[in-house]
Amino acid sequence: MFRRPDGHVARMLTIAGSDSGGGAGIQADLKTAHQFGVYGMSVLTAVTAQNTVGVQAVYPLPVDIVRAQLESVRDDLSFDAIKTGMLGDRAAIHAVADALAGVDCPIVVDPVMIAKGGEALLHPDDVAAVIERMLPLAFVATPNAPEAERLTGISIRSLADAARAAEALAGLGARYAVVKGGHLEGAGHLAIDVVFHDGTWTFFAAPRVPSHKTHGTGCTFSSAVAASLARGARPLEAIAAAKSYISRAIAAAADWDVGRGHGPTDHSQSPVWPERMEAGRMYVFDGHQFAETAPPL
Predict the structure, then answer these.
(1) pLDDT of residue 237
(2) Catalytic residue, candidates 180, 202, 213, 265
């Protein structure tokens, strides 16, 4: 396990739902934390019956149990970063937000709303609670394009739209707003993530991989950001390391025969720790290293 400069083991808490298929949710988060050398802990918000072809059932846990888990971990183990994923419903969102309001560590908010197969994991009426309670807590927010559309009301069809949405997310409270580029069609062979912070856009790209093994990519990316922050990485370096990790994980699982639908990624990969990243630049990951290129906008 990685030890921080003060000598203690880096620790990450994930607050999310369980994926019985093992590719997303709590399971993906803990696998990712391990690969980053970070001790992972969990607060379970919901139990799902799901596999690579869909979600068959969702059971949100009682809010008292969610709260008790969080208090138990906080009072004994503590943490250096927190990642939130599927929170279930408005009551759970408010309970988690209340518990995290005074926490002194970076929080990564992955506003999970829709499963890979298209099933809703958050009721439309509860989206307002994410906007009002979770985004102001977010040191980093990591929605994909469809989620960013629902949070900001901006139709995202291009990289320029994604940039506008990232700026809007920052206006809603996220210090670093990341709109992931996996769903964008206008960037050619590259999947480009847009980061907005303090008036500046930064771009991280990697070649698209022709694969259906993409279940849990959002969970994995956000937990990789949180694990990197738990180690003490600077925000842009944490986002870059997460980009390298998920790119490798998708590519390594492209020929897997795990499941009949959107299969899981290969969490056994190692991240690439980049040199210092400068805001306002574009960095392209080729599977081995990052290279700086001219920003696309």
Answers:
(1) 97
(2) 180
Contact 93, 57 (CB under 8 A): no
Concerning whether 213 is annotated as a catalytic residue, the answer is no
Is 216 among the catalytic positions? yes
217 included as an active-site residue: yes
For this structure, is 182 an active site residue?
Answer: no
- CA–CA separation, 242 vs 83, rounded Å? 13
116 is catalytic: no
Q: Residues 194-224, buried b or exposed e (16+ Cβ, 10 A)?
A: bbbbeeebbbbbbebbebebbbbbbbbbbbb
Instruction: Tell me the C-alpha distance between 288 and 138, whole Å.
Output: 30
Half-sphere exposure of 233 (CA within 13 A, CB side): 29
Sequence-ordered strand ranges (E) for the chain: 11-19, 39-51, 54-60, 81-84, 107-109, 140-141, 176-179, 190-197, 200-207, 282-285, 290-293
The type of residue at 99 is: A
Averaged pLDDT for residues 168-195: 89
- pLDDT tens-place string over residues 16-45: 999 999 999 999 999 999 999 999 999 999
Residue 285 has what pLDDT? 97
Check 17, 88, 218, 263 and give the catalytic one: 218
The sign of the dihedral angle between the CA atoms of 108, 109, 115, 121 is positive
pTM above 0.90, yes or no: yes
Please tell me which residue in 48, 214, 220, 265 is annotated as part of the active site: 214
The yes-or-no answer on residue 243 being catalytic is: no
Q: Which residue in the block uniquely carries the two structure tokens 């080729």?
A: 286
Per-residue pLDDT tens over the stretch 228-244:
999 999 999 999 999 99
